[in-house]
Design brief:
208 residues, mainly beta, hypothetical protein yedk fold, 5-stranded antiparallel sheet, 5-stranded mixed barrel, 13 strands
Length: 208
Protein backbone atom coordinates (compact mmCIF):
# COMPACT_ATOMS: atom_id res chain seq x y z
CA UNK A 1 0.00 0.00 0.00
CA UNK A 2 0.98 3.64 -0.01
CA UNK A 3 0.13 5.44 3.20
CA UNK A 4 2.61 8.33 3.39
CA UNK A 5 4.40 10.47 0.86
CA UNK A 6 6.32 13.71 0.35
CA UNK A 7 5.36 16.71 -1.76
CA UNK A 8 7.38 19.95 -1.84
CA UNK A 9 6.72 23.06 -3.94
CA UNK A 10 3.63 21.63 -5.69
CA UNK A 11 2.91 24.82 -7.64
CA UNK A 12 6.44 25.07 -9.04
CA UNK A 13 6.48 21.40 -9.96
CA UNK A 14 3.24 21.64 -11.97
CA UNK A 15 3.26 25.18 -13.40
CA UNK A 16 4.08 23.92 -16.90
CA UNK A 17 1.45 21.17 -16.70
CA UNK A 18 -1.69 22.85 -15.44
CA UNK A 19 -3.76 25.78 -16.66
CA UNK A 20 -4.77 26.98 -13.22
CA UNK A 21 -4.18 26.41 -9.51
CA UNK A 22 -7.14 26.37 -7.14
CA UNK A 23 -6.52 27.12 -3.44
CA UNK A 24 -3.09 25.46 -3.35
CA UNK A 25 -0.23 26.90 -1.33
CA UNK A 26 3.46 26.50 -2.14
CA UNK A 27 4.21 24.54 1.03
CA UNK A 28 6.47 21.58 1.75
CA UNK A 29 4.88 18.49 3.24
CA UNK A 30 7.35 15.79 4.28
CA UNK A 31 4.71 13.56 5.84
CA UNK A 32 1.58 13.69 3.71
CA UNK A 33 -0.96 11.30 5.21
CA UNK A 34 -4.60 10.20 4.85
CA UNK A 35 -7.34 12.68 5.79
CA UNK A 36 -5.12 15.63 4.77
CA UNK A 37 -6.09 17.87 1.87
CA UNK A 38 -3.31 17.51 -0.69
CA UNK A 39 -2.52 18.86 -4.19
CA UNK A 40 -3.93 16.73 -6.99
CA UNK A 41 -4.02 17.26 -10.77
CA UNK A 42 -7.43 16.99 -12.43
CA UNK A 43 -8.30 17.34 -16.09
CA UNK A 44 -11.25 19.22 -17.58
CA UNK A 45 -12.30 19.91 -21.15
CA UNK A 46 -10.61 23.32 -21.00
CA UNK A 47 -7.37 22.19 -19.34
CA UNK A 48 -5.79 20.76 -16.21
CA UNK A 49 -5.97 22.19 -12.71
CA UNK A 50 -4.05 21.68 -9.49
CA UNK A 51 -6.57 21.37 -6.66
CA UNK A 52 -6.71 20.33 -3.02
CA UNK A 53 -8.53 17.04 -2.40
CA UNK A 54 -8.76 14.95 0.75
CA UNK A 55 -6.79 11.72 0.77
CA UNK A 56 -9.23 8.92 1.53
CA UNK A 57 -12.36 7.99 -0.39
CA UNK A 58 -15.54 6.69 1.19
CA UNK A 59 -17.44 4.51 -1.32
CA UNK A 60 -21.11 5.36 -1.73
CA UNK A 61 -22.18 1.89 -0.61
CA UNK A 62 -20.59 2.24 2.84
CA UNK A 63 -23.32 2.76 5.43
CA UNK A 64 -21.36 2.44 8.67
CA UNK A 65 -20.01 5.78 9.79
CA UNK A 66 -17.02 4.19 11.58
CA UNK A 67 -15.59 2.66 8.40
CA UNK A 68 -12.27 4.30 7.51
CA UNK A 69 -12.03 5.85 4.03
CA UNK A 70 -10.08 3.83 1.47
CA UNK A 71 -6.67 5.31 0.66
CA UNK A 72 -5.54 2.85 -2.04
CA UNK A 73 -7.15 0.86 -4.83
CA UNK A 74 -5.51 -2.33 -6.09
CA UNK A 75 -4.86 -2.25 -9.83
CA UNK A 76 -5.62 -5.97 -10.08
CA UNK A 77 -9.26 -5.46 -9.01
CA UNK A 78 -9.79 -1.90 -10.24
CA UNK A 79 -11.95 -2.97 -13.18
CA UNK A 80 -13.90 -5.56 -11.21
CA UNK A 81 -15.27 -3.56 -8.29
CA UNK A 82 -18.18 -1.49 -9.50
CA UNK A 83 -17.39 1.48 -7.26
CA UNK A 84 -13.86 1.72 -8.68
CA UNK A 85 -14.74 0.72 -12.24
CA UNK A 86 -16.94 3.78 -12.65
CA UNK A 87 -14.24 6.07 -11.25
CA UNK A 88 -11.37 4.79 -13.43
CA UNK A 89 -13.66 5.28 -16.41
CA UNK A 90 -14.57 8.90 -15.73
CA UNK A 91 -12.79 10.32 -12.67
CA UNK A 92 -9.02 10.03 -13.03
CA UNK A 93 -6.48 12.20 -11.26
CA UNK A 94 -2.74 12.36 -10.70
CA UNK A 95 -1.07 12.92 -7.35
CA UNK A 96 2.16 14.91 -7.52
CA UNK A 97 4.93 13.77 -5.16
CA UNK A 98 8.67 13.92 -4.54
CA UNK A 99 8.67 10.38 -3.19
CA UNK A 100 6.88 8.05 -0.80
CA UNK A 101 7.49 6.00 2.33
CA UNK A 102 7.09 2.28 2.79
CA UNK A 103 7.86 -0.02 5.69
CA UNK A 104 9.81 -3.27 5.65
CA UNK A 105 8.67 -5.79 8.21
CA UNK A 106 11.21 -8.14 9.76
CA UNK A 107 9.67 -10.24 12.50
CA UNK A 108 8.21 -7.61 14.87
CA UNK A 109 10.26 -4.69 13.57
CA UNK A 110 9.07 -2.29 10.86
CA UNK A 111 11.71 -0.09 9.25
CA UNK A 112 10.64 2.91 7.12
CA UNK A 113 12.21 3.55 3.73
CA UNK A 114 11.96 6.55 1.43
CA UNK A 115 11.45 5.91 -2.30
CA UNK A 116 12.17 8.29 -5.18
CA UNK A 117 12.71 7.98 -8.91
CA UNK A 118 16.24 7.06 -9.95
CA UNK A 119 16.31 10.13 -12.20
CA UNK A 120 15.15 12.38 -9.31
CA UNK A 121 12.18 13.66 -11.33
CA UNK A 122 8.80 14.29 -9.64
CA UNK A 123 6.46 11.36 -9.24
CA UNK A 124 2.93 11.26 -10.58
CA UNK A 125 0.80 8.62 -8.86
CA UNK A 126 -2.20 7.34 -10.79
CA UNK A 127 -5.36 8.02 -8.80
CA UNK A 128 -9.12 8.21 -8.93
CA UNK A 129 -11.41 10.68 -7.20
CA UNK A 130 -14.99 11.36 -6.30
CA UNK A 131 -16.24 14.79 -5.24
CA UNK A 132 -13.46 16.15 -2.98
CA UNK A 133 -11.80 12.83 -2.10
CA UNK A 134 -9.09 10.79 -3.84
CA UNK A 135 -7.14 7.58 -3.48
CA UNK A 136 -3.93 6.21 -4.97
CA UNK A 137 -3.81 3.19 -7.28
CA UNK A 138 -1.22 0.57 -6.32
CA UNK A 139 0.19 -2.43 -8.17
CA UNK A 140 2.54 -5.29 -7.48
CA UNK A 141 6.02 -4.06 -6.63
CA UNK A 142 8.84 -4.46 -9.10
CA UNK A 143 11.46 -7.04 -8.19
CA UNK A 144 13.78 -4.24 -7.07
CA UNK A 145 11.21 -2.84 -4.64
CA UNK A 146 9.59 -6.09 -3.50
CA UNK A 147 12.34 -6.79 -0.98
CA UNK A 148 10.96 -3.86 1.03
CA UNK A 149 7.24 -4.17 0.29
CA UNK A 150 5.03 -6.16 -2.08
CA UNK A 151 3.02 -3.14 -3.25
CA UNK A 152 3.91 0.22 -4.76
CA UNK A 153 2.04 3.21 -6.23
CA UNK A 154 1.50 3.18 -9.98
CA UNK A 155 3.88 5.92 -11.16
CA UNK A 156 3.34 7.57 -14.55
CA UNK A 157 5.99 9.46 -16.51
CA UNK A 158 5.33 13.12 -17.21
CA UNK A 159 5.19 12.57 -20.98
CA UNK A 160 2.34 10.07 -20.54
CA UNK A 161 0.04 12.12 -18.29
CA UNK A 162 -2.25 13.12 -21.15
CA UNK A 163 -2.68 9.51 -22.15
CA UNK A 164 -3.88 8.61 -18.67
CA UNK A 165 -6.29 11.53 -18.66
CA UNK A 166 -7.65 10.56 -22.10
CA UNK A 167 -10.96 8.95 -21.19
CA UNK A 168 -11.04 7.20 -24.56
CA UNK A 169 -8.13 5.15 -23.25
CA UNK A 170 -9.25 2.15 -21.20
CA UNK A 171 -7.71 3.12 -17.89
CA UNK A 172 -7.17 -0.29 -16.31
CA UNK A 173 -5.53 -1.78 -19.39
CA UNK A 174 -3.31 1.27 -19.78
CA UNK A 175 -2.04 1.00 -16.21
CA UNK A 176 -1.55 -2.76 -16.38
CA UNK A 177 0.63 -2.49 -19.47
CA UNK A 178 2.54 0.55 -18.25
CA UNK A 179 6.29 0.29 -17.72
CA UNK A 180 6.99 1.91 -14.36
CA UNK A 181 10.11 4.08 -13.93
CA UNK A 182 12.96 2.73 -11.86
CA UNK A 183 13.03 3.68 -8.20
CA UNK A 184 15.73 4.05 -5.57
CA UNK A 185 15.31 3.95 -1.80
CA UNK A 186 17.04 4.23 1.55
CA UNK A 187 16.12 3.69 5.21
CA UNK A 188 14.92 6.71 7.18
CA UNK A 189 14.14 7.62 10.77
CA UNK A 190 11.16 6.11 12.54
CA UNK A 191 10.13 9.68 13.30
CA UNK A 192 8.07 9.43 10.12
CA UNK A 193 5.78 6.98 11.92
CA UNK A 194 4.17 9.93 13.72
CA UNK A 195 2.04 11.94 11.27
CA UNK A 196 2.56 15.21 13.14
CA UNK A 197 6.31 15.05 12.51
CA UNK A 198 6.91 17.07 9.37
CA UNK A 199 10.40 18.22 8.47
CA UNK A 200 13.13 17.65 5.91
CA UNK A 201 15.08 15.37 8.25
CA UNK A 202 12.43 12.68 7.73
CA UNK A 203 13.77 11.88 4.24
CA UNK A 204 17.44 11.81 5.19
CA UNK A 205 19.17 8.44 4.96
CA UNK A 206 20.22 6.72 8.15
CA UNK A 207 22.41 3.71 8.77
CA UNK A 208 20.28 0.59 8.88
Amino acid sequence: MCGRYVITKPISKTKELVKSTIVVNEVDNYNAHPTQKLPVIKSYSNGKTLEMLQWGLTPHWVQEKNIKPLINARLETLGKKMSFKNLITSYRCLIIADGYYEWKRQENVKTPYYFTREDNQPMFFAGIYKDHQFLIITGEASSHVADIHQRQPVVINEEDLDEYFNLKTEGTNFLRSYQAPKLKFHPVSKDVNKPTNNNKQLIEAIKN
